[in-house]
Structures are given as C-alpha cells and as structure tokens.
C-alpha cells in the first residue's frame, strides 16, 4: 500500500517509540515524528539525558507532540539492600523526568533474579514492594507506573514478572491512577488466556506496544523483535482485545532489531506507517474480538 501521508486521520493514535529508530538522536526523532505526521512519541531516558532534560522538555513542548510514555524505570531486584536503595533513588528521578516531559506513564521493567539467587517468588515480592514505595510519589507527580511483563526468556536477567496476569496481580493492589500495566505484543502474545487478561486489565492498560515475534531468534534475544507482519503475532486479535477492553490511548511501535536499526531512519518510519495501517489501525475501533 502507499505510505500514508502526513495528516491522514488514521495515524492519529500511532506513536514512534524511540528505540525503533535507535540511530536517531532525540532531536532527529522529534523531527522525524513530525515529518511523518504523527502526534505522539515514546521517549527513552538515555537520549533525553544526552540532550538534557530541560532542553528535551522544551523541544517536546515546542513540537506539540504528546509523550506516550517514558522508558524506563524498574530493575528493582537485588540481593544487596544498598543496591535496592540506589534503584529506588533512580526510580524517583525517573518519575520526576516523566512529569517534566509530560509523560503520563513511566514504563517499569521489574528486573531479573538477584545475583546468585534462585528465589523467583522472592524476587517478584521485591518488585512489588519497590512499586509500593514508588506509587504515592508517582501519583503526586501525575504519573502512572506501568508494569511491563516480560516474555519468560527474560525472567532470569530482566523481568521476573512474566505474564500479564502476574503484572495485574501486583497492579491491582494499588489505585488505578497509581499503577497500571503495559500490554506489549512481543511479551504477551503467547500467554494462554491473554484475551481474558487483557479484558481484566481494562482501564489499567496504560500503554499498548507492538512489535512482532520473529524466528529464528538472533543470538541476542533482546534484539528479536521484528516489524509487524514479519513474524508470528496475530495483531488483529490482540488489537481487537485491547480495543474491547476500552483502551483509547496511543499505540507505540517498539522494535529492537539490529537490521532495522542499521536501515535509514526514513525508510523504517515509512514501513512503520504502512504496517500500522495494514495490521493495527483497522482493529482499533472494534468492540469485540
């Protein structure tokens, strides 16, 4: 299909997550998002820090773009109490950055097993306790914490919260304006009762992120996200479930893939627009799957 033109109303909810075009600086990402005619961008803390927080906030304000989310906080799990305290302080800074940038959501990656530990239940408990300490601070800043469940292949080193059900078990301990969940197609497409869990999430869905599951997996599994349509995920099914749950926010395309990162940013953006229009947008208005 032709690449959608800027101003196409069907692009109204599409957001570019910065990591999809990792070679772009923050300034380039803002400019590229505007040139494509999008109204929203998902930011990462590292390029924001490179530009400077005040500069980044000024650029965003001048651009008129919405910030769909800020990545990332979390990494709560550690055997050493001093490391857990340091993580808490870092997450406090992340909450302040999200508020300064106007991001409604701070995405949380829970963290993996503490070094030398096999206590998975204890690690999840650590993450839940850390979130409990952050939740009232986030609320005071007008930021909702978004727990992102990670595919089980990342349990040991990155995400002890592996399913949407587990993420909701934690989130539901808090008011909905403090803690929600991130529905990321790459991480949850395989979950056996995913449709039911998305429905359960309802108003707690603070972000819908899309990227495909490709095989064979590359040596670095973190870089195994593909462009929508290049892998195995049924985006109509997932998007329809998210829409039926009542989610009306932005849809972030978030892809970690070395080949995509090596391609010209403008070409990647054009592909994002086309695949979104083909595989995501038609399902956003559906009320049932």
Short structural description:
With 289 residues, the chain is α/β, with parallel strands linked by helices. The protein has helices spanning 26-35, 45-51, 53-63, 81-101, 120-140, 164-171, 185-188, 194-201, 235-244, 258-262, 265-279, and strands at 14-17, 40-44, 66-74, 105-109, 144-147, 179-184, 205-210, 212-213, 225-226, 251-253.
Strand order of the largest sheet: 1-2-3-4-5-6-7-10
Q: What are the low-pLDDT stretches, counting only 5+ consecutive residues below 50?
A: none
Main β-sheet, in a few words? 8 strands, parallel, barrel
Provide the β-strand percentage band.
Answer: 15-25%
**Using DSSP, what is the number of strands?**
10
Describe, in plain words, how this protein is organized in 3D.
The chain is an alpha/beta fold and 289 residues long. Helix content is 42%, strand content 16%. The protein has eleven helices and ten strands. The protein has helices at residues 26-35, 45-51, 53-63, 81-101, 120-140, 164-171, 185-188, 194-201, 235-244, 258-262, 265-279, and strands at 14-17, 40-44, 66-74, 105-109, 144-147, 179-184, 205-210, 212-213, 225-226, 251-253. The strands form two sheets. The chain has an eight-stranded parallel beta barrel, surrounded by six helices. Strand 4 (105-109), helix 5 and strand 5 form a beta-alpha-beta unit. Helix 2 crosses helix 3 (53-63) and helix 4 (81-101) runs parallel beside helix 5 (120-140). The longest helix is centred in the N-terminal third of the chain and has 21 residues, at 81-101. It is globular and about 55 Å long. The mean pLDDT is 96.
